[in-house]
Model the fold of this input.
Amino acid sequence: MYTCRNCKRTFRTELALSLHRDTCAEGQLFCQACGDRFAERRATRDGWHYACPNDDCEGEGLTEDILRVDDVRITTRTQ
Ligand SMILES: [Zn+2]
Ligand SMILES: [Zn+2]
Done:
């Protein structure tokens, strides 16, 4: 079983999980440092300072290391 860390849904294959992660409503943020995706509430406590929730990742700062997935999609579409 593969579990989406953001919404806790489970999938039988790793491929199904990776496809889901692209559309997961709970994975709005993307860390450029480690490439992981996570829910906004996992990356910030006060809505001001953002840091990657992964213990082994130093990524922090919205629009710096942490990007909104919607913004990334818009950027790649216009390039
Ligand atoms: Zn999910
Ligand atoms: Zn990270």
Notes: The chain is about 30% helix and 15% strand. Residues 2-78 form one domain.
